[in-house]
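Q: Here's a chain of 420 amino acids. Please give me its 3D structure as tokens.
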Amino acid sequence: MTNLTRLVVLVVFFTGLVHAQLVKYNDDAFGSGAITLDVEAFRPGADATALFSKYGVRFSGKESTPRVAEFSWPPIPVTPGTYHVVRNQANEGSSAGRPLRIDFTNAPRQVGFSLRNPGVTASVTAFDPDGISLGSVQQAAAGSGDLSTKVRLWVPAGRVISKVIIDYGSSSVPEEILDLTLDHKDRPMFETFLPQVADGELPDGLHLRTAITIVGLTNSTVTGDIRFRGADGQPLLVTLNEGDPVNWKPVNSFDDNLTITAGTSTPAVAGYAKVYTTSPVAAVAAFQITGNNGVVISETSVLSTAARHNHSGPVWEVVPSGMVGGGVVPPRYQTALAIANAAWEKNMVRIELTGHTPVEFELAPGQHKANFVWELFPDLFDQDFQGWLRISSSRPTVAVLLKTKDGLPVSAVPLESLEP
């Protein structure tokens, strides 16, 4: 304790033969590689776990549902500010005795948060990956003129924090945090999937190319790479506008966020892409049809998706019947499915479609499969159809539905899932 701006509480105890230490600092002196997740970006009412699971963070409570909430502060100002928090609101009745629990898939060395605890002393307990307590510390109530209190939890070398419990005890005030900072000794890599990419020359002098945009979701600089994979799950060579064929491309910063294939592969190639980064990102793959002059004629975007065991989405098929004015054949609208095995193990996949017998097939490790839905359910080929498609698998998959007009993509339909 060397100055008034830092408060250190040290708890030392023995659990069996394990010597554990938890240190609390009231500052935000994290390393340069720390990731800060700001609640301000999310809408009130959103489920906190659904928002933060991408970062390897899961919120839970005892008979409570941690959600994003909004409040104004200071309470009696001329122009109050509006802030968002993760609030551990009880499902029914009082919040007393219902602590906020935060679990970390990638256990950090340090955890920090801005704690909203006006008039309430908080107890904070940390645990290691084996469920052994690293100790508990007390945080006094925030001052009447303070929006929040900064808390930084630290454990000695060789220890990590996999769970934190914040408890306001018998107080009816729900636990709240404005942000969350994770500082790892070895920073984890985050994996983002684009379930379909394509490149190549088309008839009539047209070209199909994929433009990939990457957006960072935290305040940290992003580094990593994009890895292209073919139907067999192996590296896929594509030519980028920058020059030679490659099967990967580095991602170095927020400014280096656009990758465009050249549209010159002969024959045309298709597959998917994995984006590995040091911080969570969102990615978009835009399929562009261009002329020989490079001018974009049409564009369809596919959002990045998480790997899941279950997905579902709508299927729409319109078969032309006869000709319209001037002898023009009306367009044919069909739905295509792109799916990839996100696991490096064999994966049994089951596809269900409204009113049809389910189809099952096996995907090899990393394998990618793209078909029109009628190719999986042949009786759809000459029928108009509207229905629902559901995918279930023994291992996680990534997938997207593409609506096509005369075989070319016109819109993407992200598949929904109850999994975070």
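Q: Can you summarize the key feature?
A: Helices lie at 48-52, 373-376.
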